[in-house]
Amino acid sequence: MIKLLALDMDGTLLDDQKKISAANIAAIHRAVDAGIKLVLCTGRILSGVKPYFEELGLDAENEFVILNNGCAIHQTSDWSLLDYKALTRDDIDYLNNFSLGYDLPLTLCDIDHYYVVEQEANPDIIEDTRQIFLIPRTINLEATKTHPQPFFLAKFVGHPRLVTEFLEKNDKELSQRFNAVLSQPSIYEMLPKGVSKATALESLTKKLGLTADQVMAIGDANNDSEMLEYAGLAIAMDNAPNHIKALASDITLSNNDDGVAATIDKWILNKI
């Protein structure tokens, strides 16, 4: 029986206008009332999750969120950081060298902030930070070495054509040192090696005394692939690409058609 719902946000819980439908909110409440543990699993940082979690109306519940594509786990009762994986200072030096010669600035995320290393934010960075309710900050490389918070992940952000060219040239080398993920056409992310939504979800599942076969995961994108493979029940959104759908046990409606609500009704509430 499903005990934990691992739920992606962009392209899954959120529609294309970055809104949560009333139907999805109502279905999540029904699931939580039935004893299901909700875990939002997203590439977003904390600032991009809190307003949506509050909109769900579950802020009094002791739920969990997995952020930064698996680099950080927070408890929602007080938003404390339960566990994290971070890049090293050597990792950041190494990655910064790759941004030279490309119109793809290196960006870094800590708990609360989004930084652009040594360069100005391009339009794609500005849009990326707008969606998580932040303004990008510039940081010089030397300052990253004494930064008081860990940097969970790095991103190369820019026009999709430039990102594709950069990936094709550098993915093989970067993937040897990092978990390199094209999370969106304009965003190529570098996570610490071995880190993903799935590794964080597995760790949390064990802490809660549950097993993978008690987990249902819903997602739509490349950064959801390991999570879908881990979960006992994997659901892909109709708006997901075919290679993500191929990982799923079932395909639900799109993110614009209350696919999360349909999945909860079909696979959780109808099984109780």
Characterise this structure.
The chain is α/β, with parallel strands linked by helices and 272 residues long. It has two domains: 158 residues, HAD superfamily/HAD-like (Rossmann fold, 3-Layer(aba) Sandwich); 104 residues, Hypothetical Protein, Haloacid Dehalogenase-like Hydrolase, Chain: A, domain 2. The chain is built from ten helices and 14 strands. Strands 5-4-3-2-1-12-13-14 form an eight-stranded mixed beta sheet. The chain has a six-stranded mixed beta sheet with strand order 8-7-6-9-11-10, with helices on both faces. Helix 1 runs parallel beside helix 10. The chain is globular and about 55 Å long. The relative contact order is 0.17.
Keywords summarizing the entry:
Rossmann fold; globular; 8-stranded mixed β-sheet; 272 residues; 14 strands; alpha/beta; Hypothetical Protein, Haloacid Dehalogenase-like Hydrolase, Chain: A, domain 2; 2 domains; 6-stranded mixed β-sheet; 23% strand; 10 helices
The rounded distance between the terminal residues' Cα atoms is: 8 Å
- Return the string of H and E elements: EHEHEEEHEEHEHEHEEHEHEHEH
Secondary structure tally: strands: 14
CATH architecture of the largest domain: 3-Layer(aba) Sandwich
Tell me the domain tally.
2
**Given the helix and strand composition, which structural class is it?**
alpha/beta
* Strand content range: 15-25%
State the shape: globular
CA gyration radius, whole angstroms: 18 Å
**What strand order characterises the main sheet?**
5-4-3-2-1-12-13-14
Tell me the name of the CATH homologous superfamily of the largest domain. HAD superfamily/HAD-like
List the uncertain runs.
Answer: none
CATH-defined topology of the largest domain = Rossmann fold
Top CATH class of the largest domain = Alpha Beta
Q: Indicate the percent of residues in helices.
A: 25-40%
**DSSP helix count?**
10
Mean pLDDT: 96
Instruction: Sketch the major β-sheet.
Output: 8 strands, mixed
Pfam family, one: Hydrolase_3
Protein name: Cof family protein
GO molecular function: magnesium ion binding; phosphatase activity
InterPro entries: Cof, HAD-like_sf, HAD-SF_hydro_IIB, HAD_sf
